[in-house]
Design a protein that fits this description.
Elements lengths: L3 E5 L6 H12 L3 E3 L6 H8 L6 H18 L4 E4 L5 H8 L5 E7 L2 H10 L10 H7 L7 E4 L4 H11 L2
Parallel strand pairs: 1-3, 1-4, 2-3, 4-5
Helix pairs in contact: 1-7, 3-4
Length: 160
């Protein structure tokens, strides 16, 4: 059975950037959970309205189905997965998940979000993500203050 990597953290922490680079480096497909959001969820976030658990449940369920589909091949997923209950939904009936928490402070991430071009996530929602965040006590934790190559090396070495 191949590995499944789930890169998690608040919006703007680098999940997609690291996920795409990790995909190329270890030759596993990359998917972004943002692509599974409903049109309604994207509109809410673009208008600065935080998603509720009710909004997130169908989204997380659809991402879980995609992970089940790809678990034999292996996959890298970028997903905020902010709460433990969200991580439980994502990982339901899936084995061999390698959790990677991209950890950063508010100021660094806020600067990144303000520089980011076209994305539906409204930077005004960042505080709501930090308020919701339940940091995992398992998996790999790595600071986003490191350069991307060091982050990639750390993820690969910790999951061999």
């Amino acid at each position: 059975m191949s590995k499944i990597y789930i890169l998690m953290g608040v919006s703007g922490c680098g999940k997609s950037t690291i996920g795409e680079r990790l995909s190329k480096k270890i030759d596993l497909p990359f998917i972004d959970a943002d692509d599974f959001h409903s049109k309604e969820n994207k509109i809410k976030m673009s208008e600065g309205i935080p998603l509720t658990d009710f909004d997130r449940k169908p989204w997380l369920t659809s991402v879980n189905l995609k992970l089940k589909e790809l678990q034999l091949k292996g996959v890298i997923l970028a997903c905020s997965a902010l709460k433990e209950s969200y991580r439980e939904l994502l990982s339901a009936n899936i084995k061999n998940i390698n959790w990677v928490y991209l950890q950063g402070d508010y100021d660094i991430i806020e600067k990144r979000l303000k520089r980011r071009a076209s994305h539906f996530f409204n930077p005004d929602l960042l505080q709501s993500q930090f308020d919701c965040l339940e940091e995992p006590r398992y998996g790999v934790r790595i600071s986003i203050a490191l350069n991307p190559d060091r982050i990639l090396d750390y993820i690969i070495n910790k999951n061999e």
